[in-house]
Amino acid sequence: MTPSLMNFLLSLLAGVLIVVVPATVGLIIISQADKVQRG
């Protein structure tokens, strides 16, 4: 594996950890805290 490919894969992993994980956790927390009352 070339160094540039390794850096690309690491940057993708870093992007997932920095953007996707906190966004998912935030949405889960908000959805649990702000329940819609039906009925």
TrEMBL record:
Keyword Membrane included in the entry's annotation: yes
TM region positions: 6-30
Compartments, as annotated in UniProt: Cellular thylakoid membrane
One GO CC term on file: plasma membrane-derived thylakoid membrane
GO BP term (any one): photosynthesis
Membrane topology (UniProt): Single-pass membrane protein
InterPro entries in the cross-refs: PSII_PsbX, PSII_PsbX_type_1_subfam
Entry similarity comment: Belongs to the PsbX family. Type 1 subfamily.
Oligomer status and interactors: PSII is composed of 1 copy each of membrane proteins PsbA, PsbB, PsbC, PsbD, PsbE, PsbF, PsbH, PsbI, PsbJ, PsbK, PsbL, PsbM, PsbT, PsbX, PsbY, PsbZ, Psb30/Ycf12, peripheral proteins PsbO, CyanoQ (PsbQ), PsbU, PsbV and a large number of cofactors. It forms dimeric complexes.
Job of this protein: Involved in the binding and/or turnover of quinones at the Q(B) site of photosystem II (PSII). PSII is a light-driven water plastoquinone oxidoreductase, using light energy to abstract electrons from H(2)O, generating a proton gradient subsequently used for ATP formation.
Protein name: Photosystem II reaction center protein X
Gene label: psbX
